[in-house]
Amino acid sequence: MRSYANVALGIVVVSAIVIVISCLFFNYQVSPVSNDETDIVFDVPTGSTFSTIGDKLEEIGVIRSSSFYRFYIKIFTPDKLEAGKYTLNKAMSMREIIKTLESGSNYNPDAVMLTIPEGRNMEQVASIVSNNTNVSANEFLEYVNDATFLDEVIANYWFVTEDVKQSDIRYALEGYLFPSTYELQNEDVDARYIILKMLDQMALELEPFKNDIENSEYSAHELLTMASIVEYEAILDEDRALVASVFYNRLDIGQKLQSCATLGYALGEFKLTYTNADMQVDSPYNTYYYAGLPVGPGCMPSRESIEAAIYPEDSDYYYFMANVCDPTSQKTYFSKTYAEHQEKVDKYLTCF
Fold first, then answer.
1. Where are the beta strands (DSSP E) in 168-224?
2. What does 214-242 look like in DSSP terms, one character per residue?
3. Which of 80, 120, 174, 277 has a beta carbon 3.0–4.6 Å from 124's, enabling a disulfide?
């Protein structure tokens, strides 16, 4: 009787292993081949079917196996395939590839790719826009401050409030345009189209955090302002939440933030060291001069910095410094007291 039980148990174990291996194999085959988002123009000739294009999809490298692909489409039976040109990439899953092909040709030969890196300020964004489209930098900067347009934006995006219309703010939507790569219809799109596209992306990025933002003691504007500081100050991703905690701890006791990020933005120049005269510049962005958060963000923060601003570490640190004197080091040192902080400055910042 025990032998039968052992056999049954063995069958169950083997079956479970087979199921797990099969699931892992399936998930591997349908997952993206890589994270390369470079566009690949794929031509579907007249008379093609989903089955007949499998070898070509494998050849251009967007799927791993044409055999598995044909097995997949037999199970999920996609709709009729239309002839035409399609834009695919290796970062698309098999499901995304098939969904794209089902939707009809998405190829646009006039498309323009616009890449806004993280941490850029509004003037830098305007310059990137002008270099890639027929929108001038001045036109772009004027539009982000246009009063009528701002009223429309405030009415349509929950995270944009009257805070952006403060008179001391340099550019009303600075910090609100999400840094990413965008596909524009062509180089003749207008400033409004570009700005709304970037606001739409920010809305998508903030949606998972909406409840926590609305229940926070800080407004969305203040959180994006903090995120913009963290974007500049944190060297490594893992430091972001701890850097945010230092600034929140200072806010809690009324201590000035003294962020070089805000001082550099106030001066219009970022330096490794600042003079006492620099620190005395009277600007609503200068947190060496004024207590509290600056009047608004000074750059376009990444998702990681936004998340750190919303969910800072719980720490008792009030100071930090990066070891900028050692180009091989990305170490950031955190301290609880000024005396402890000064010891680290004397030890590591020997190049000044």
1. 181-184
2. HTSSS-HHHHHHHHHHHHHH-SSGGGHHH
3. 120
Mark whether 190 and 293 lie in a shared domain: no
Q: In this structure, is residue 19 part of a structural domain?
A: no
Evaluate if pTM is beyond 0.85.
no
Q: By CB neighbour count within 10 A (0-12 exposed, 13-18 middle, 19+ buried), where does 276 fall?
A: exposed
Do 333 and 233 share a structural domain? yes
Spatial contact of 300 and 175, defined as CB atoms under 8 Å apart: yes
Q: Is 8 a member of any domain?
A: no
Rounded to whole angstroms, the Cα distance separating 16 from 111 reads 49
Q: What is the pLDDT of residues 193-222, one digit of tens each?
A: 999 999 999 999 999 999 999 999 999 999
The C-alpha torsion from 227 through 228 and 230 to 236, rounded to 10°, is 100
Give me the mean pLDDT over the 330-341 stretch: 91
Cα-based angle 56, 89, 84 (whole degrees, multiple of 5)? 55
pLDDT at 58 over 90: yes
Tell me the residue ranges of DSSP E strands in 46-99: 84-88
- C-alpha 217/C-alpha 210 separation (Å) is 13
pLDDT-based confidence at 273, cuts 50/70/90? confident
Residue 219 CB burial class (10 angstroms; 0-12, 13-18, ≥19): middle
Find all residues with CB under 8 Å of 53, minimum gap 6, and list them.
44, 81, 101
DSSP characters over 91-117: TS-HHHHHHHHHT-----TT-EEEE--
246 with 332, same domain? yes
Token representation of residue 134: 């027929």
Same domain, 242 and 127: no
Q: How many domains does the chain have?
A: 3
Tell me which residue has tokens 């003691």: 217
Coil, helix or strand for 320?
Answer: strand
pLDDT of residue 351: 75
Range of the structural domain that residue 178 is part of: 112-207
Residues 260, 343 within the same domain: yes
